[in-house]
Structures are given as C-alpha cells and as structure tokens.
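Subject: design request, 246 residues
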C-alpha cells in the first residue's frame, strides 16, 4: 500500500507541474481520473482544441498517464443550407449595375424616392397624394431588394439557373402591375395640381412628371421581362418530318 501511495504522489506531482491544477479522485477500478488539464494546442486548420490528461490504473497496481483529446460538439459548415453556390461565394456581381437592367433599376430607385418625397410635400390630406406616396414607397423597397439580390447573388443572372424563370415571372407581374398603378398616379396628381385648394401645387406637378417617367421605365422593364420569359420557354427540340422508308 505504501508503494502505491508513493506512486500516486509522484504522478500527482508530475501532473501538477505540467497541468497547473490536480483533481485527485480516489475511486477503485481499472480507470481512475487523476487530473484534468485543459491545454490549447494549435491544429492544422488554425483552430484550438482541448486535451485532457487521465491516469489509467492497471490490475498489477501500476499506473499509466495518457493525454486524450476532449470531445466537443462541432457544427460543420457543410451541413448548412447553401444559398450561394460554392464556386460563387465571396463574389459580387457589380457588373450588373452597368447593364441595361441595372441602370433601369437604379433610375427607378432614384425616381421612386423623389416621387415619394414630393407626394408628401404636395398634400398628405388628400387620397390622390396618398396613392402616389404608397405606390412610390412600395416600388422603392421592392426594386432595391431586387437590385441587391442581383448584385449579392450573382447566380440569379445565369441563364441555366433552375430558379431563374421563376424570378422572371415574379418581376414580370411586379412591373406589369406597377406600370398600371403609376399610370393612374399621373392623372391623380394632375387632378390634384389643378385644384384650387392645394398648397403644394408645384410639388404635385413635379410628381406627375416623375410618374410619367416611372411609367415609361416600368413599361420598358415589363417588355424586357416578357421577352425574357418567352425566351426561357422556347422549344429547344426541333422535330423534322421526313418520308419513312418501308
């Protein structure tokens, strides 16, 4: 018993010098945890891992000290849902801003913001100005989201992308509906500017002019998306009829 006590003391002393603290657990059995040491070791990927020192007591009375890696819950990035394809991560499609669709969207954002401000300045007490105010704010948010999506998610501009046709249909409906709404806004703002009791008559006239420009821009976008939608659904297989030989 004295020999075993001396061995335990020597092991505990060695662990104290290396680990920094000792937690002796006098439990009978083959395996006894004599000390716990948390060490940070650099790995190949630059991450830090925790190791633990344990003491194994053999049946013949001798002890053996081992260093094992402590198990941790790991969350692998491969298990996450990939919104951006792997081969296109870290890229921004800034070239889209120089295309016709990008320039049109930038112009729509700027004009929608100006129309929103002018509609507020015209007369917020009337329903005609409120109509233009709500339509311009709605298009400002949605077009900004579309532009951001095309820049941040470059795979949406690829023709072979499986979800591209669905986005074209969404934009076609959006631009078609808002073309009609802005066309209505033109006449509402003209009617507001012609009324005698309007204080912001100049703002109403400018809003009507900007609504004309927005109607033209949204109509162009509608035609472009309609052509793109038809191009996506053109048949790619050509069947040639010929005389069959007997």
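Subject: RE: design request

Done. Sequence follows.
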């Amino acid at each position: 018993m004295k020999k075993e006590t001396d061995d335990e003391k020597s092991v505990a002393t060695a662990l104290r010098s290396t680990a920094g603290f000792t937690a002796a657990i006098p439990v009978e059995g083959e395996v006894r945890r004599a000390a716990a040491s948390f060490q940070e070791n650099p790995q190949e990927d630059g991450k830090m891992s925790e190791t633990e020192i344990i003491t194994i007591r053999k049946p013949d009375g001798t002890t053996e000290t081992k260093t094992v890696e402590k198990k941790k819950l790991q969350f692998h990035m491969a298990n996450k849902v990939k919104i951006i394809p792997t081969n296109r991560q870290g890229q921004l499609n800034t070239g889209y801003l120089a295309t016709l669709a990008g320039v049109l969207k930038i112009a729509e954002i700027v004009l929608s913001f100006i129309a929103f401000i002018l509609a507020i300045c015209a007369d917020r007490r009337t329903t005609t100005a409120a109509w233009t105010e709500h339509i311009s704010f709605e298009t400002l948010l949605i077009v900004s989201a579309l532009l951001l999506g095309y820049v941040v998610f470059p795979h949406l501009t690829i023709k072979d992308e499986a979800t591209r046709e669905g986005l074209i249909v969404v934009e076609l409906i959006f631009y078609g509906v808002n073309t009609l709404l802005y066309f209505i806004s033109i006449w509402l703002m003209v009617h507001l500017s012609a009324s005698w009791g309007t204080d912001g008559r100049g703002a109403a006239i400018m809003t009507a002019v900007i609504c004309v420009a927005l109607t033209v821009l949204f109509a162009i976008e509608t035609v472009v998306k309609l052509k793109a939608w038809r191009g996506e659904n053109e048949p790619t297989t050509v069947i040639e009829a010929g005389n069959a030989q007997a």
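DSSP finds five helices and four strands in the chain.
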